[in-house]
Amino acid sequence: MASSDGQGGSRRVTLTEVARRAGVSRSAASFALNGRTDLRISEETSARVRRAAEELGYSPNTTARTLRTGKSGTVALISDFIGTTSFANAMVRGALQTLRDADTLLYTVDTQGDPDVEAKLLQNLLDRDVDGFLYASMFTRQVDVPPLTRNAPLVLLNCASPDIPAVIPDERGAGETAAAALLDAGHRDAIWFVGSFPPGFTGAAVWNGWSPLALTERLDGIQARLAAAGTALAGTAPIETDWDVENGRAAVTRLLGSGARPSALICANDALAVGAYHALSVAALQVPEDVSVIGFDGSALTQAVLPRLTSVALPYEELGRIAAGMLLQGDPASRPHRVPMPLVPGASIASPAPRD
Amino acid sequence: MASSDGQGGSRRVTLTEVARRAGVSRSAASFALNGRTDLRISEETSARVRRAAEELGYSPNTTARTLRTGKSGTVALISDFIGTTSFANAMVRGALQTLRDADTLLYTVDTQGDPDVEAKLLQNLLDRDVDGFLYASMFTRQVDVPPLTRNAPLVLLNCASPDIPAVIPDERGAGETAAAALLDAGHRDAIWFVGSFPPGFTGAAVWNGWSPLALTERLDGIQARLAAAGTALAGTAPIETDWDVENGRAAVTRLLGSGARPSALICANDALAVGAYHALSVAALQVPEDVSVIGFDGSALTQAVLPRLTSVALPYEELGRIAAGMLLQGDPASRPHRVPMPLVPGASIASPAPRD
């Protein structure tokens, strides 16, 4: 193994040299080496870049040193609530894995959404010579980036802002995936959506349970996919205060009480879906024989219910890995990088029950 | 509100002066002001200390400045996995709340259990003049504290080591609480424990699902409480690989298949209890009419099952708050501070079903 301090004296291979050898642009080389899949780089091109990197002895560790040169070998992940709540922590894990491979340490700090604390933390971190920032949000949303972050390399994680490198989940694609899973099972005219912004919600940066980008984009994707199949949602079961189990139970209880006969429920997150299970159980309806259910998030709740809940997962660890890689390598993209949200199959989807 | 920088010039009131005015020892005053309940300080004494503190204008913020004086106003929470997993994060939240009230910033760093990373992080943090360390473990356990932590004030959080101030959950009391809840409902001779160390477990600092102190002490408490009532566990349903839903389901399926007829199950954590629900459901046994169930942790899983699971909760936020308070004030105790684990009632305990 090479010394982690790389005092060997051989000249450092640059990304530009790898790109030149592979016959691709520097951006394409960066994307290929970051394992990113959103740009249309063919597998053949990607393999050529990796081969060129190998032949030249270019390694992530080497590029990591670009960020580190003469600096502290320390990066800070500054977030609203990720470090202090049991949600989205896998983003920190992903970032840590990538940074650790690059011999770079990670500090995590939470502002709890307080701009004063945020400014103090940023100044404190800059005073301590951190080499770069991952600016992260617990819920996917648009952010106004505090000016102090611009004093070091910056990548946004699970949030977006114009002209700043960013990594966010492909929420619209996730909506399409959820709708497709139900269409594929034969559902069509009695698919309901469970979830809404609670009354009075203004789109501000509240954290406890809603996510402007997620709801809007998931719903867009669902509607687009259903429209492409010549159908539409039968309706929406709105929730009252939060995206939690109790609100899911209440919303679906109201829906069933209204006389609606859903064949399938697309729930805005897993907690609402678990609440839907409870409401269906009380109404003596079986999942999936009587009603199919699908959620979003891919959380541990999917395994807590019987049968296991099918969900479209937030790829938190991958978001963290990719954002850290972009911070280490420098990112040439001007639009947010969208990470696909995978379907995690459970046993909560079946063919629609026969209607009488 | 006073300026957070406290430039007012009035002399700082010390804890010793508060103790003298209240007529108690400095330790007792410290315990009373930290809201600690493990020492046998009467409510009357505690009230006298608080009154003295108020009369003298002594405040946590004032004491916070003791740690900060001439330093960086920054504390680091160094843990194995807390920042990168969705477990125990409330400890960070509790610490952050207390530190924020004291105008002190918190860095969180995870070592992922790697001693090399740990040493690098500690040196990195010391180079940056952090004022103190909270050394934390995701699972309650004995730790060997790395020597570098001794270069700054140190409090252990959810772990223990001889002669170092530490805060841990009262796991033995939690076991007693669980047993008492079942005894109170009338259970006696058919109470089974679900959970064990998996085969080959050696007590090393593995993280993924077991907790040496928790299992041993919870079981001690259960057995002591049952013995005090003149009875004992009917037996243990061992688990195979981890304390998760699937292992809980498998363990209880085997138990029922062996012909055992439990009236109640004490599960080593909530995930195993959820698995127990699934096994009981498949066997057409109702919770709590046929079998009562209780878990430990007080996690979000308790709300995912119907009826809601009764659990003995890990007081994570309180652990974090108390540890941060001890770090700010200096802690005179030589034994670990034990924080009570509260019963969080669900609807999973009822009187035993009649036996034929």
From TrEMBL, chains A, B:
UniProt keyword annotations, A-Z: DNA-binding, Repressor, Transcription, Transcription regulation
Return the annotated region ranges for Disordered.
335-356
Domain of life, source organism: Bacteria
* Keyword check for Repressor: yes
| Domain HTH lacI-type: from-to ranges | 13-69
Q: Which SUPFAM superfamilies match?
A: lambda repressor-like DNA-binding domains, Periplasmic binding protein-like I
One annotated GO molecular function is:
DNA-binding transcription factor activity
Q: What is this protein called?
A: Catabolite control protein A
Instruction: State the organism of origin.
Output: Microbacterium azadirachtae
What does the organism's lineage look like at the top? Bacteria, Bacillati, Actinomycetota, Actinomycetes, Micrococcales
